[in-house]
Amino acid sequence: MDEGSIAPGAAAGGPISHTIFRLARIHSLLAGRLLREVGLHPSQELLLMALWDGGPRRQTDLGAELGTDSAGTTRIVQRLEEAGYVRRRPDPADRRATLVETTPAGAALREHVERIWTHLEELTVGDMTPAEQGSALAGLLRLERNVLATDPCQELGRRVGKRGLTRE
Amino acid sequence: MDEGSIAPGAAAGGPISHTIFRLARIHSLLAGRLLREVGLHPSQELLLMALWDGGPRRQTDLGAELGTDSAGTTRIVQRLEEAGYVRRRPDPADRRATLVETTPAGAALREHVERIWTHLEELTVGDMTPAEQGSALAGLLRLERNVLATDPCQELGRRVGKRGLTRE
DNA sequence: CTAATTTGCTGTCCAAGACAGGTAAGCGAC
DNA sequence: GTCGCTTACCTGTCTTGGACAGCAAATTAG
């Protein structure tokens, strides 16, 4: 073994978690590189994708779906709005809320972005057979469900306090 | 289905990639929360772990293993050094290079960190049977190999130019 | 010896997470 | 109606981290 950074060994403390970390890192690196082609950052792209998929929505709902807090959502939407890909419109039903929807320019991006996702998916699955892909996907979903069950999202908006190692 | 953000549907463009993204996000969220207990951020902790696992190493090698560039590696090492968890020492074999090694304080952290990893792993695998865990891990490793084969790491240090959607 | 390369460091710009406020709108109790 | 609480969004600040440019010292090639 010792093929690059695969399964370093100290991963003994948590092989699956560790592998998730490594996979996520390089996968996101690869995705970020592909996404650059359209000038979007991963989070921005995920938000757009959520919009294409679910239609106009309030920022709060978008944030909850993406796992970002309201401040982060605001900024992501702002950048997309400045770029002309989304539009904000007051919610007629609740004047506190803002509906976010894609503009034609945003919609025009969709095809391109989906082509990139398809490409990313091809690179990711490589030469796996459909059966292997299905089993891998099932494993991922299962892990996702487990982690979700521990409720990190439920607590997402909560104040937790205590920072990590800071500059100090 | 439709349990929270699981399999939103537009993920049709790349179900596995999309799931990796979502899983990575909440998993890292959960890990970050657990890691806070020792005052470390995920990247810092991964670097420490790599050190425990592979012994003293040069910064370049550490960076390559973690997928960060030299600037990022410098900063992470600096913070760990300021916190007293690692030490830097000139490489006797190449006086340009710096060897990074853990201090006793860093080593003392190991047990605690590994306990956290074990806890994280338990939460992540949930009630999966050992067989299911093995199959999930195999899937993850397979995906990792595929993505690595596309070489994002090989190009890691390269200049790629072109930024994403920026402020204006 | 000189010239090119490698290694690490610094600084800048940027995205994004976490948190602490602040404002405006809605809603319930009285 | 008014008072008070909650919700939805925004802003500012701090921090981590990615990407990049430039620099100094050491190494290596010629």
UniProtKB/TrEMBL annotation, chains A, B:
It comes from the Bacteria. This is HTH marR-type domain-containing protein. PANTHER family: HTH-TYPE TRANSCRIPTIONAL REPRESSOR YETL, TRANSCRIPTIONAL REGULATOR, MARR FAMILY. GO terms for molecular function: DNA-binding transcription factor activity. SMART domains: HTH_MARR (SM00347). Residues 13-145 form the HTH marR-type domain. GO terms for biological process: response to stress. Gene3D superfamilies: Winged helix-like DNA-binding domain superfamily/Winged helix DNA-binding domain. PROSITE patterns: HTH_MARR_2 (PS50995).
